[in-house]
Amino acid sequence: MKGPKVLAAALIAVTLDNVQALQRKRDTSRADIQYQAHYFQQKINHFPENKLPYAKDNFTQRYYFDSTYYKPGGPVYLYISGETSATNGLGVILENRYYGASYPFNTSTTDQLAFLTTAQTIADNSYFAQNAVFPGIEGDLTAPGTPWILYGGSLAGAQTAFSIKKYGDVLYGGIAASAPIHVVVGYPEWYNPIQKYAPQECVNRINNIVDKFDALVAKKQTAAIKQFKALFGLEVLTDNRDFASAIADPIGNPGFYLSNTWQELNWNSTYGSRDFFYFCGNVSNIDAPKEISDVDYALSKYTNGEPWVGLGGYADYIKKHTLPLCSSGDYNSHDCWGTQNKSAWADISNTATRSYVYTSCTEQWAFPKGKYNKVPASPDLNVYNSFGDFNFSANRLAFVDGDQDVWNGLCYHSPLAPARRQTSDLHPELFITGSGHHWDSYGILNVDAEPQFIREAHLWEIRTVKQWLQRAILLYSITEYLPEY
Ligand SMILES: *[C@@H]1O[C@H](CO)[C@@H](O)[C@H](O)[C@H]1NC(C)=O
Ligand SMILES: *[C@@H]1O[C@H](CO)[C@@H](O)[C@H](O)[C@H]1NC(C)=O
Ligand SMILES: *[C@@H]1O[C@H](CO)[C@@H](O)[C@H](O)[C@H]1NC(C)=O
Ligand SMILES: *[C@@H]1O[C@H](CO)[C@@H](O)[C@H](O)[C@H]1NC(C)=O
Ligand SMILES: *[C@@H]1O[C@H](CO)[C@@H](O)[C@H](O)[C@H]1NC(C)=O
Ligand SMILES: *[C@@H]1O[C@H](CO)[C@@H](O)[C@H](O)[C@H]1NC(C)=O
Q1: Superkingdom of the source (predicted)?
Q2: Probe ligand 1: pick from 43, 45, 58, max atoms within 8 Å of CB?
């Protein structure tokens, strides 16, 4: 008899954001303190046809679990709130390979990174679900005998979607939050929600200043460019691209930045930062002291006497609040805004940044051709998009997105996606008005006390998963009575 006597749901929550967010999460992560780390013998390689060295070896993959709410038997209710608390369910967090304490190798050369692929990563989820042990918990909780429900936000949301699509026979269902299921080379649309939803006087001022500076660059007005950089205390950034990314730091970009930006806002300030609004407050400050507002006229001779409205507040904010984020004080270094140091890119130390860059970029300085592995001249988008792209569909896979999310252009609810798709019990979807990047990942234990838009999204997620599980109970109890074939 294969049907489970003990029905439980397990939750994998792998939230893998861009590197800054990762860094912050590591800094603020309470997991080490609250929960004991466990280590799983994971296969370095899941595909027998792969004959690379080490392909037959294991590595240790870290995981945590929370059995506070776990009860053997009875119906299963799964609470999804970013904390891994699920009524009667068991919450598990499995660390992504090549991050944290889950590196297969001591360094990250191009060859050693060969096993950091989407295919291997999602196979980890399936293999783990089929073999996981939970010390102290009685009974066999492995999949598919026990329904496993995945939850992931951001890149982990995409991994959730891919896992359910590829391993739907093992993994019962999943919620993919703000999952970029479509990839592109270059993503200027990242700024669209900021242009649309951020305070408009701030947006207009910044747009006008950027246009004016671009005109100086187009006309090669070297002296004016130098003077502009000096207003921000950034003369040292001779590469205009690096300079642009430094003064854009409080707004961010799809790659690397040091500030808390629009992406780091959150409905609950415990999990996010208001810095973006403070930045805008400075750019739009109508009460700025004269020595700051005078700076608006510093370059007006290049614009027919027209002031660069907000420049004083902008430059002052950068000097006081952005430059100090560069801890070495060397603004042109690799750790801050300098991107032109080849040997810094080539550093093979294991870091989250390097793993993320390997997954996302085309940077040849970082990954010279190895003996067995090389990065393509341009990323092979098809490997990723072929899971379904904007037409992505898998049974018991829910897509949850937010309209204010900078990554929404790549998600299920992207403005580029086909307009009319039908939601159903097996293919549920929710587009949360007012929500940023997987804001549903954050919750408080009392869902009723949450703000309406998040509360209702959480209640929807609970209903969705409950409904799937009710069907599972039905399915498994029927099998109990079926004769063995
Ligand atoms: C890898 O770990 C599995 C248990 O997950 C074990 O059965 C297997 O022998 C290990 N293989 C190697 C090469 O260590
Ligand atoms: C990796 O580092 C550990 C601890 O420093 C060491 O014991 C081990 O031999 C190293 N492995 C390799 C393959 O270099
Ligand atoms: C300017 O930014 C600082 C630092 O975040 C903040 O404390 C201050 O309130 C902001 N000023 C305005 C006028 O918003
Ligand atoms: C470039 O990076 C390397 C390795 O991190 C470092 O040792 C070197 O000082 C850097 N060079 C410059 C000019 O910053
Ligand atoms: C999605 O499906 C529609 C209708 O079948 C098709 O026209 C479109 O090209 C597909 N889009 C993608 C990105 O696959
Ligand atoms: C924000 O989260 C904290 C920690 O979970 C909680 O104590 C607080 O009540 C929450 N605030 C709101 C407005 O939900």
Answers
A1: Eukaryota
A2: 58
